[in-house]
Amino acid sequence: MSRQRFDAISESRNRTRIPVEESGRRSALHATYVFNEERMLQYLTKDALQSVQSAIFSGSKIERKIADQVAEAMKGWAISMGATHYTHWFQPLTGATAEKHDAFFDLLPDGRALEKFGGGQLVQQEPDASSFPSGGIRNTFEARGYTAWDPTSPAFIYDATLCIPTIFVSYTGEALDNKAPLLRALHAIDESATAVAKYFDKNVAKVNATLGWEQEYFLIDKSLAQSRPDISIIGRTLVGRSAAKGQQLDDHYFGVIPQRAIRFMKDLEIECTRLGIPVKTRHNEVAPNQFELAPVFEEANLAVDHNLLLMDVMDKIADRHHFKVLFHEKPFAGINGSGKHNNWSLATDTGVNLLSPGSTPMKNLQFLTFFINTIKAVDTYEELLRSSIASASNDHRLGANEAPPAIFSIFIGEQLSNVLDELEGVSKGKLSPEEKTELKLNVVGKIPEILLDNTDRNRTSPFAFTGNKFEMRGVGAKTNCAKPMTILNTIVAKQLRDFKKEVDLLIDKKNLKKDEAIFNVLREYIKTSKRIRFDGDGYSDNWQKEAKRRKLSNNKTTPEALKVLTSKESLALFASMEVLSETEVKARLEVELEAYTLHLEIEGRLYNELVFNHIIPSAITYQKSLIDSVLGLKEIYGAAHKELTEGPSGIIEIIAENIAALKKKTDAMNEIRKKANNLSDIQRKASAYSESVKPYFDEIRTHCDNLERWVDDGHWPLAKYRELLFM
Length: 727
Ligand code: ADP
Ligand code: MG
Known about the structure:
By secondary structure, this protein is α+β, with helices and mostly antiparallel strands. The chain has three domains: 144 residues, Ubiquitin-like (UB roll), CATH 3.10.20; 394 residues, Creatine Kinase, Chain A, domain 2 (2-Layer Sandwich), CATH 3.30.590.10; 131 residues, Four Helix Bundle (Hemerythrin (Met), subunit A), CATH 1.20.120.1560. The protein has 25 helices and 18 strands. The strands form three sheets. Strands 10, 11, 12, 13, 14, 15, 16, 17 and 18 form a nine-stranded mixed β-sheet that branches. Strands 1, 2, 3, 6, 7, 8 and 9 form a seven-stranded mixed β-sheet that branches. A hairpin with a 2-residue loop joins strand 8 and strand 9. It is globular. The model has no long low-confidence stretch (mean pLDDT 91). The chain binds adenosine-5'-diphosphate (ADP) and magnesium ion. The site of magnesium ion (MG) has 3 residues, from loops.
């Protein structure tokens, strides 16, 4: 056994128990590190408080004078909490978060020290962030990017640093991050949904999109993880034979949480609570060492920030517990990978969930309006929605019968399907009083207030209605939820805007009553969006065929999936909703394709390291010991065991063949990679990686895993699945 593997295994067996802080009542700790409304009430003047509140509610600007006051208050609070630094916390297009810390501490010209942080530092900063991907938006001579305060997500203290959530934009105003477009999309959905919600309640002044994510992850012993180049660098195993036992017994899912994991979770939850992340649910997932954590849902922008912060906190707390957390969508072959369901709905400032059926026909008409418009939006823009969850790592999951397929469809369950079928039969134009009564009592009135128990029976659906929200299930575990949330809210906003126009037209021109007009438009939508509804088995081959017949997109790889971003329709949508300009969309496409290519390039290089520096040398060492044995046997007995020497089943032969194949395949992969690297067009380069380079990875892996099967355990250099997956 390699020294590295031996040390890692011994270390992992000798983990001492990490003391866990006693939590007591969680509510007492809640958001103590957050400059939220409660703190603001305490630290801000009435004027400043009102100004921040109205910025949160309506996006109004905060005056510099007020910003100074807020900064002063934040600084006072942060320093009293032990913070020494502050940072603008932003989400560049790398997918992670970024920060650059500055000390509050400053020196005056006369040498005296003071703590400095004013409105200027709060509102805007210019980090020298020229190395972040921009898709060509910033030329190197004008590489400046600005971070600007997002008052809708409260500042918080993390690691003795006051973190101020910000957007990141170029000197010329283009978004260079994932937050700015999300905020624009949330503004769009607020406008469109509020206008439609007013049909039902004049008092609605604001609609928030809500998001409840469910984060899946793996916990791996730190020293074991570090002993493998693939896990330490990309968070997934590029080689590794399945352990005798994986998830086939279904004994991990919802099982007793291992002690080591529960101690980590307790520590994590305390930290999250202080940071205002409302974590609620924890449980074992399907694969060994796989877990899930889910919070109470929140306003979408805040929920996105909280998920990003959570992933960072998890890394840090895991380290304290000698774990490495894997967020990669497919860390291990042969067992489930990790996703992040995005539960989504719309909530009014009057406290109503617009996707929740109610107790009166009017409330249910409101529910149906938002429900059917969402279905229609997903039908129109299914390919765009698919593109929002595309990444090199998520490609491993989508369509692999553990996560939904790459085809988008909507599951609504039998009960609601029946309601939609009946609505479809409503006659065109004006409704007779009898028809109205029939509709109200027997169709709309029949929707039970609580649908929860009757839906959600289909786990293979990528977009399922689960009683009072839609659940988008193809999102990858690593993904920044801002991406799918930006697209989903944009397309629903566009759809609701179109809907309002159509309804108003019927009211004005055709003299229809409001509810008649609504019924009329909804009926058309039900008819024209039928192809997106699918309640069957999303994993089946039949669905692949059926979906093709329905002309639904089925983009299995990232380079394919991303193409739609710059279609005429997509560009028109982003422009009309003021979410992304053409320049911004094109830049994003370039950044995504580049990220995809680089990801596969790194994997290709890692295969070289694994194959030539670890696996082949170990196989040769073992092979040599076999050859020595054969020679010795021949010397003593005049012959050796056939099992060792004679092909194709002789062990020496098997090893020799796999070594030869590995050398050949890895060389070939490198050649193809060089060719791909020479392509200057990024779309062609990404496709070359996807179509020509990536298939070699599986072949290389097969030979590595064959060798793992035959080579003596003592000679094997890499921690095995059995060691990695069972704590
Ligand atoms: P599952 O069965 O998929 O595990 P649950 O029904 O327990 O899911 O809920 C999962 C998530 O849905 C939770 O994170 C919860 O916060 C979220 N959720 C519930 N209601 C809403 C809503 N109105 N908007 C957004 N998310 C919601
Ligand atoms: Mg779920």
